[in-house]
Amino acid sequence: TNVLSLDVFRVLNKTPEVLDIFYEEITQRLETSKNSKSFTAQLQLASDKVRRVMDSARSLFRSITPQTPKEHVELVARDFSYGLATSFAASLLLEEVALSPVPDTAASVAIIFINEYVR
């Protein structure tokens, strides 16, 4: 998984605008969930957690320069990629709250996933 994580950095270095597009995609999904009648304070906390992880990932990526030691990049690559993946999955689950015929169940699943996996 570390090799794949480093590949994510390589791709983003070639096309850094992809991270902003990815961030916007997640933001749109979070906004969709906010417009749900089932949106609760607990879902707001979960949504905020996803946004913080994405903000941290974006800041981390922007802080890495060609002068950044390779060892440092290797140390953070896995957590960076994991943050992107879990944030995207969480945004899909939060969006499902607004789209689901059983929003309470969707909300429970989203909250459990975010509390367990998004860090």
SSE inventory with pairings:
Blueprint: H1 2-14, H2 17-34, H3 41-63, H4 70-99, H5 103-117
Provide an overview of this structure.
This protein has 119 residues and is mainly α. 83% of the residues lie in helices and 0% in strands. Helix 2 packs antiparallel against helix 3. The model has no long low-confidence stretch (mean pLDDT 94).
Q: Notable features of this structure?
A:
119 residues; mainly alpha; 5 helices; elongated
Flag low-confidence runs: none
SSE-based structural type = mainly alpha
**Number of helices, where a helix is a run of at least 4 consecutive DSSP H or I residues:** 5
What coarse outline follows from CA principal-axis ratios?
elongated
Please tally the β strands and state the result.
0
| End-to-end separation | 18 Å
Helix content: over 70%
Task: Give a concise summary.
This protein is an all-alpha fold and 119 residues long. It contains 5 helices and no strands. The protein is elongated and about 50 Å long.
